[in-house]
Amino acid sequence: MFTKILVPIDGSLQSDAAVDLALRMAAASNANVTFVHAVELSRIAALSGPSAIDPSIAIDAACQAGNAILGDAKQKATDCGVSSETLLLEDECIRSVMAAARQIKADLIVVGSHGRSGISRALLGSVAEGILRHSNVPVLVCHAPPVQPVQKPNGAIKREVLVAEQTML
Q1: DSSP codes, 20-74
Q2: Burial zone of 97 (CB within 10 Å; 0-12 exposed, 13-18 middle, 19+ buried)
Q3: What is the pLDDT of residues 46-66, one digit of tens each?
Q4: Domain of residue 108, CATH code
């Protein structure tokens, strides 16, 4: 069905979920997966501003982090027996993802979403939404499974409080 799957990743739980989903789909259909990570150079340079901080240091660090994220995804693909490639993009995220989709002739984009709404979505924007709006190919948006908080039995909490009280005395 799909032969070239593009997966934008940022190292978040949501993008990890997209990686896992794309790899399952690719393994089932013998598709190739291309992982992309965007480093927004203009945003990094703007954050550095006219301060004494050299933006090239921040840019190098962002590129190293991006390559590490891409390397982890590629290793997952190798472990699953899926053919994959990686691309480190140096431009605005949505624009560069769309350019990469055209470049590799992707027939599916799998992207993770934080699922923000309201003011946080308006202020932070949504990469997934931008990709949905600009893509000419199908886009599959997925969320990470919810993380369950670690809960201790009531007795454990009471014992910890008792120990804390005794320690303070």
Answers
A1: HHHHHHHHHHT-EEEEEEE--HHHHHHHHTTSSS-HHHHHHHHHHHHHHHHHHHH
A2: buried
A3: 766 666 567 788 888 889 999
A4: 3.40.50.620
pLDDT, tens digit, 9 for 90 and up, residues 69-90: 999 999 999 999 999 999 999 9
Q: Which residue in 123, 132, 55 sits closest to 90, CA to CA? A: 55
Residue with tokens 């969320």: 143
Say how many domains are in the chain. 1
Quote the pLDDT of residue 43.
78
Domain range for residue 65?
4-168
Phi, psi of 30 (to 5 degrees): 55, 40
